[in-house]
Design a protein that fits this description.
Elements: H1 3-42, H2 47-70, H3 79-107, H4 113-139, H5 144-158
Helix pairs in contact: 1-2, 1-4, 2-3, 3-4
Length: 176
């Protein structure tokens, strides 16, 4: 495969990965916002605590979606390590997401329903950028064998054809 063809293939694979991540993430956002608003309107939890609970519920939902849909073809051998890294990076995303809401609510005093949902959504967006990078880089790593096969295939496709050993050294008939 030519270099432009290989690049197109890699971009297509990345596009599918981003789309699958987006589907799971989009559903996770809906879960997050639904739980957040349900807790805000039916309990006496302070806003940021309600947001933290909603984020934890969404993290659990997203793990199942990422493991069994988005990254189902990735290495499954080290589940304990995978879950530990997933939780670690999810906690960093949780801090990013809820840090934005905390700053808007307690730093700027914007705690109305519309403002809290806006800053919750904005924080989710920032946290999602971090999560996408960290999950694909560290948590749901591609299988080494698959990478090796792709590298070998691209190497073989770039190599020039070698004459077969049967024909080497034998005179070839003239064709007119």
């Amino acid at each position: 495969m030519s270099e432009p063809g290989a690049l197109r293939m890699r971009l297509a694979l990345l596009g599918r990965e981003v789309a699958k991540f987006g589907v799971v993430g989009g559903l996770g956002v809906l879960v997050n916002l639904a739980v957040f608003n349900l807790l805000r309107h039916t309990t006496e939890l302070p806003m940021v605590r309600a947001s933290l609970v909603a984020t934890v519920v969404a993290i659990a939902f997203n793990y199942v979606g990422f493991r069994y849909f988005t990254y189902r073809d990735r290495d499954k051998s080290g589940r304990t390590k995978e879950m530990t890294l997933f939780l670690l990076f999810s906690i960093v995303g949780l801090v990013i997401e809820n840090g934005v809401l905390y700053a808007a609510t307690y730093g700027l005093g914007w705690n109305g329903s519309l403002a809290s949902n806006f800053f919750k959504f904005f924080g989710i967006g920032l946290g999602t950028l971090f999560r996408f990078w960290s999950y694909r880089t560290w948590v749901f790593r591609a299988l080494p064998a698959k990478e090796a096969v792709q590298t070998a295939e691209s190497f073989l496709e770039q190599a020039e054809p070698v004459p077969s050993p049967r024909r080497a050294g034998r005179p070839q008939p003239d064709r007119v």
